[in-house]
Design goal:
The structure is a single chain. Helix 3 links the parallel strand 2 and strand 3. It is built from 9 helices and 11 strands. The chain folds into 2 domains: about 130 residues, 60s Ribosomal Protein L30, Chain: A (2-Layer Sandwich), CATH 3.30.1330.10; about 160 residues, PurM-like C-terminal domain (Phosphoribosyl-aminoimidazole Synthetase, Chain A, domain 2, Alpha-Beta Complex), CATH 3.90.650. It is α+β, with helices and mostly antiparallel strands. It has a 7-stranded mixed β-sheet, with helices on both faces. Strands 1-4-2-3 form a 4-stranded mixed β-sheet. Helix 2 runs parallel beside helix 3, helix 2 runs parallel beside helix 6 and helix 4 packs across helix 5. Bound molecules: adenosine-5'-triphosphate, thiamin phosphate and magnesium ion (MG). The site of thiamin phosphate has 11 residues, from loops.
Length: about 325
Amino acid sequence: MLSEFDLIKQYFTRSRPVRAVLGVGDDCALLAPTPGMQLAVSTDMLVEGRHFFPGADARLLGHKSLAVNLSDLAAMGAAPTAFTLSLALPAADRDWLAGFSSGLFALADAHGCELVGGDTTKGPLNICITIFGEIEPGRALRRDAARAGDDIWISGTLGDARLALAAYRDELDLEAASLGQAAMRMHAPTPRVALGRALAQDALAHAALDISDGLVGDLGHILTASKVGATLDVDALPAGPVLARQPKELRRRFTVAGGDDYELCFTAPRANREAIVAAGAQSGTAVTRVGRIDEQPGLRMVDGHGEPLDLGLHGWDHFVSG
Ligand SMILES: Nc1ncnc2c1ncn2[C@@H]1O[C@H](COP(=O)(O)OP(=O)(O)OP(=O)(O)O)[C@@H](O)[C@H]1O
Ligand SMILES: Cc1ncc(C[n+]2csc(CCOP(=O)(O)O)c2C)c(N)n1
Ligand SMILES: [Mg+2]
């Protein structure tokens, strides 16, 4: 029988913390922020049945729980430092804990981000991570900083995660190899931390966010916060490799209003085009220009010929459309 404290000790306590002054084991963790840097804090919860299917692979779940949090730091241009993990578990299952913690720590180590504390209780499976990062003062990529005339850029590709979800929900048929490939985008997103850091440190971008609820909804947050509008070239949106093989109507729908993409959407002055392409290459992340920020409020979608498109799509909302 694994007790609450054995579980924490065996699966979530590692040798001496490197970044934290004090890590797992006391009432609080102690962190010593780098002098002169600002602290970036974000939290994201994954709930069984809502963010992942019952029986989801534990290792992938460990990865995704941290990935979605790292993605929020990436969206601000912040460098990850530490995180806390709050878990509700239906049972203390050794296999599940070994898988979950290995997926979690593999990604944490890849980003030099340290687990410093958390909370563990019994209940329906629920995973909540709070992440801490650092950013140079004045460099954060805020949602309220887009300016008319900016280009709109997207990292990586969009829509494969939504395609996998559609297949799981029997909304469409995908052959096994395609589903396997698309499903990895849903289960194991890659947070664009290096790209976000480059955009912020070199002041290449004005505004940014990560696309978790679908581009149309998330870009809308930048437009509202920045009091601007945008024209989006829907046919320029980079579809994931599996979605790219699907009919145009589906490609448009899932790139514009997918979900679980965890790519960055950012706006930047024209003058920075070359430097942004170089930052993409440097960080191993594709970057694609997909539209521009306008003074006129509202989001206008156009096709590859500049003709208006009315797709009637909206972002993910847990209480309206989710
Ligand atoms: N219960 C809450 N109390 C206070 N602030 C909240 C609460 N829920 C969300 N927020 C804040 O509202 C804003 C939008 O939250 P949201 O969870 O949609 O973030 P996001 O980055 O757009 O999406 P994601 O959760 O997929 O990362 C964030 O600033 C978040 O910190
Ligand atoms: C079983 C299952 N059903 C649906 C989805 C899709 N999904 C759930 S929440 C969300 C938006 C981001 O959430 P939040 O804003 O809470 O971070 C998306 C796209 C999934 N991943 N698994
Ligand atoms: Mg976000």
